[in-house]
Amino acid sequence: MNKIFLMNKSLMAGAMLFLSLGTTFAAESAKPAAKKIIKPNILFIMVDDLGKEWVSSYGSEDIKTPNIDALAKNGMTFNNAYSMPSCTSSRTMLLTGKYPWRNGYVSHWDVPRWGVAYFDWKQKENTTFARLMKNLDYKTCAAGKWQINDFRIEPQAMKKHGFDDWAMWTGSETGNAASDKRYYNPYINTPEGSKTYAGKFGPDVYSDHIIKFMTKHKEDAMCIYYPMALVHRKWVASPDEPKAKSRLERHISMVRYADKMVGKLMRSLDDLKIRDRTIVIFTTDNGTTGPHLGFSAMRNGKMVVGAKGELSEAGVCAPFIVNCPGLVPEGVESDALTDFADMLPTFVELGGGELPEGLIIDGTSIAPVILGKKQDSARDWIMSLGGGGGRMTEHGVRGAKVFGSRVIRDKQYKAWVSEQKQITRLHDLKKDPWEKTNLLDSELAEHKVALQKFQAVVDSLPDQDASPLYEARAANPWDMEIKKARTSKKINNK
């Protein structure tokens, strides 16, 4: 793949095509009984718990992912894209455009197990990209794993967050054994409510729901969020490889099935004749399940151990591929910096809109990069934080630490920041991609300059991470008792 230094003819053609879309469609819209789209569709695909070492276009030597590889070959591959280290923080950051230290979701939290009114749609600080895209006349849909509301408490949570349609695994609801199923016989919430889909395989239900939505709205502008249930444990043998026995064999079968789902959606876009105006983004929410239960795979001659929940590059530097024939340059490898905070403003810019006045976000749009209009993003650094489990207190959900550990990096250097808000490690990722050599005490001028840069970022951060914003409500029968410290039946929002 070519580095993105000079815009070649194909890049220029893609950019010109995007600029001409409005004119072309406007002219054709004059024809009677023909509704034409002037905005690109967005399909955001996010696999659960999968590092680069399991994607062959990123150098995996232990598996082939042909459908994901095709997106990379005919699109743009990012080398420096950050997710968060765990599920919840990646999702809330993606939806809000805010870092976990700002939106409060600095720890992992399985909402349905506790019954808390998590991620309250009423809070303006929790505005989602879906709500903003609806304001731009997009039809919105989500399918897969939501995780950040309890549908028993908020049965219309998805609608309130801006989604017109959805098919979401509910999460494992305390007191409801059926809800533990996300794969075989999945328990799924739709606008009609929650139920078990007996005899079905969850990933097929989620992808079929998206295809049905796309078929219905192919003449509309669509923004679709597909947070896959795959390949998170509990590991199962996929329908294509029912004889997979060991945990590793089952994991591999699930990775292949995730790749199959990507191919299935791409074929549907082709069949609906909307492939060339649908910007597809493929990524993952964090690295592969960690070393305590995890898997190792060879990547570019190096054995990589799964690092979910960790701040190493294997845990947070996610695969990130963007593809749209004619709009996104083909065969490009980009070192531009980006992280999940950038997605909300990127979607809004792609949809032709502007951010609401007064909305505070941490991200910056990368739309000019993925459309080939600019060679680099506006980001001078990116950040990842939000690992470990949250805790329930008499005041509600709280992060595990006052100031959570985090990492900050640019294209060359990476700083590790402790819970004491001190930089403890500095690595030159170009020379030391596996982060073995700590340059913190180096006397080299370039290392001191890097430290000064990252220290300025650290100094700009608050000393205490925010807490989640949600509405206080009465206790539920399944709520956790907090060492009998709860003084009332209501969770206080303090």
TrEMBL record:
It comes from the Bacteria. Keywords: Hydrolase, Signal. This is Sulfatase-like hydrolase/transferase. Coiled coil: none annotated. The keyword Flavoprotein does not apply. The keyword Chloroplast does not apply. InterPro entries: Alkaline_phosphatase_core_sf (IPR017850), Sulfatase (IPR050738), Sulfatase_N (IPR000917). Pfam families: Sulfatase.
